Amino acid sequence: MVTLNDVAERANVSKMTVSRAINHPEQVRDELRTSIMQVMQELHYQPNAAARALVSRSTRVIKLTIFEDMDTTEPYYMMLLAGISNELNRHQYALQLATSNSYQVGECDGYILTGIRQKDYAWVEQLQQPVVFFGRNQQGYDYVDTDNYQALYESTRYAISRGYEHLVFVGIDVDEPFEYDRETGFRDAVTESGVSAQLVKLANHCHVATDYVQQHWAEFPKNTAFVCASDRLGIGIEDGITLNGGKVPDDYGVIGFDGVLLNQIASKRLTTMQQPLEVMGRAAAKLLLSNIQHPHERQDQEKIIIKSRLSTAESTR
Amino acid sequence: MVTLNDVAERANVSKMTVSRAINHPEQVRDELRTSIMQVMQELHYQPNAAARALVSRSTRVIKLTIFEDMDTTEPYYMMLLAGISNELNRHQYALQLATSNSYQVGECDGYILTGIRQKDYAWVEQLQQPVVFFGRNQQGYDYVDTDNYQALYESTRYAISRGYEHLVFVGIDVDEPFEYDRETGFRDAVTESGVSAQLVKLANHCHVATDYVQQHWAEFPKNTAFVCASDRLGIGIEDGITLNGGKVPDDYGVIGFDGVLLNQIASKRLTTMQQPLEVMGRAAAKLLLSNIQHPHERQDQEKIIIKSRLSTAESTR
DNA sequence: AACACTTTTGCAAGCGATTGCATAAATTTG
DNA sequence: CAAATTTATGCAATCGCTTGCAAAAGTGTT
């Protein structure tokens, strides 16, 4: 292994000068610095991260902890990963992946947390490091989230504007803030417009939504639009409608939420509120890094809320 | 920060004894060890990873490097991640994520590489650490892969066994071993059966496949089955058929490959060869760890080949 | 009880880098 | 041009832990 000392000897300077050439270039004579850089190249010198971390107390590692069984394999997270990873790389931080139940091995400079449910907050509190949430929380932690209220409000308004007269909100059966926000967005939109509406909460799976439509088909007059809390539900609902002989989008409309399935299935063009997950990932990474670099500058909870964008397709007229 | 010394003082032993209690429990008197363990608990002692790595020359970090633009957001990788992450956690290793173009920050004990193309091998060779590939390679590196030949051979045979009389292989237009294997599996199966067949290679996107069917519709007599190199292509093909008024599965069959979209879209029940990605991820992690722990035991290239499983659904009769 | 063991614990050195302080060189100033 | 100041480099200590060897304690044998 090539060490600072090796470089120093070869460059005829002390290892301190080499160290400074790397970390504080302005403190080293230009000429000398370039010659040191060259030696580093020749020797393929790579600073030892462990040694650095030991003395500087900074690992340059950020952990993304996903509080959900990873075998559910949400493609959702993949886009998040892309955003986070890109941003961290720009700042020369490494991204480490962990799940809630994973053995806590290795240290890090901060955490990005996602998929957190109420029961997990105890775990979070015991963390002694900067934390940024992906998803709203009422505990005062900084977070990045999409505007769930706006998303459902807007998609509901859109459905109404397309002439659908009966609205169904198909939510997810969890007790979490994001779900309330979505529901409230829907409620406000229908109340304002005075159209008839109903709500249901289902487990977040296609077939559950399909079954629901099958079993309650009588409740849905023509001109019903289903505003869903996820694309999965949207797709399931659409199937249910088709199986009952309903015509999408002429007689029934469907709007999803997330937008993660969009690029994958060309035919299933679901109208949906698309979350800019890559952007949100970047934002979370950026916020965390800023918290790490300026530990005391911030007093209040920082909230970065990024709007979802309506992406219209063939499941609405 | 709680250090070994703190624990040692509190437990009235030297820090060496504490260290041994952790790393070589059998060398410490049972009674003493349990009392040390207790002190560690009380003080919430966590060994400093950097210090450990510095002296032991092992970081307990594995890097998964994905050689593909991550913004393509293949859900494929998510399942892989799950498998790798689970296995690494069992062995108390951390998983670090990197892309080919990401700044190489931090050290690791080994690499799992996926999405590698011919042009990337130069980068790999310069690595000075154990490497396991995800996907076949002819360079002598250990790898884990699904049996691409078997997968396409089997799905083609299946299509033939269901009575389809004209076979179309819809491949991906890349120059990689895995693609040849698939093609060869298809060729062998049709040759053996003597059915008529044709091949095409397309970019791996739904709409490309849909367009292809539209433009070549005249070439496909009734009783044609499309055997595809990915689920995306399969879904695109199916759409193309439907748009042309073809009946799936009665007059046209479609078989995909991967199985990653299966659980996501209930209605689009594509018959497909399902890769057990979680298992494959585990296998890759296990193989890498064994290479790390027994550096010289192995002479030849180790190949772990895991069969895909046919999952029949509504796109074949 | 004295010897040769084996088992258990402690000491000192060092992994590769960075921090604080001291020194040397270069530059400015009166 | 010597003194004061700025800029550039080097020295020593240290981060928390593990390795190699030495010392101490315990065990058994004659």
From TrEMBL, chains A, B:
It comes from the Bacteria. GO terms for molecular function: DNA-binding transcription factor activity; transcription cis-regulatory region binding. SMART domains: HTH_LACI. Keywords: DNA-binding, Transcription, Transcription regulation. Residues 2-56 form the HTH lacI-type domain. InterPro entries: HTH_LacI, LacI/GalR-like_sensor, Lambda_DNA-bd_dom_sf, Peripla_BP_I. PANTHER family: LACI-RELATED TRANSCRIPTIONAL REPRESSOR, TRANSCRIPTION REGULATOR, MEMBER OF GALR FAMILY. This is Transcription regulator.
